[in-house]
């Protein structure tokens, strides 16, 4: 579902950057559970595979030196990490979005109004639609999904589209995106 928000090519689930290349790196077990080791390993694997943008549509309230080191590795190699701010309705961004060097993404509705479930905080750099987003689902189905986990790939796809259109690096494309946003 998250990948389809970035690269979806179906008319029911159009992606923001359908021409972008995508890597799928598993950072959770079969039950959807993850830990700092799996997340850090996934970030490093993405960077080692040449990822310029890393979307993380998950989070927790536990900080980790291991994840901070992986984020720093990505940053020094020119990769941007975009992560969901969290869906707890708190004035506290979840990790890894709360880490320095990560673009935290909150959720707004179609009119640009903050959604009550979306976490906020001083490090919340950007917001994107996060309610009723159309995404691919299992068995060739489409679903309407809600949450910052779907706001983050909208931002990731937007940066990818700008990179492609203007032949920019990920950080340059992000700065171009920020320059065109409104409050």
Description:
This protein has 183 residues and is α/β, with parallel strands linked by helices. The model has no long low-confidence stretch (mean pLDDT 95). Strands 3-4-5-6 form a four-stranded parallel beta sheet, sandwiched between helices. Strands 1-2 form a two-stranded antiparallel ribbon. Strands 7-8 form a two-stranded antiparallel sheet. Helix content is 33%, strand content 17%. It has five helices and eight strands. Helix 2 (36-48) runs parallel beside helix 3 and helix 4 packs across helix 5.
User: What is the N-to-C order of secondary-structure elements (H for helix, E for strand)?
Assistant: HEEHEHEEEEEHH
Largest beta sheet: strand ordering: 3-4-5-6
Number of strands: 8
The structural class is alpha/beta
* C-alpha geometry: globular
Average pLDDT, all residues: 95
Strand content: 15-25%
Radius of gyration: 15 Å
Distinct helical segment count: 5
Helix percent reads: 25-40%
Low-confidence blocks of residues: none
In whole angstroms, the N-to-C terminal distance is 28 Å
The major beta sheet can be summarized as: 4 strands, parallel
List the helices and strands and how they pair.
Layout: H1 2-7, E1 9-10, E2 13-14, H2 36-48, E3 53-56, H3 65-76, E4 80-84, E5 102-108, E6 126-129, E7 133-136, E8 142-145, H4 148-166, H5 170-179
Helix pairs in contact: 2-3, 4-5
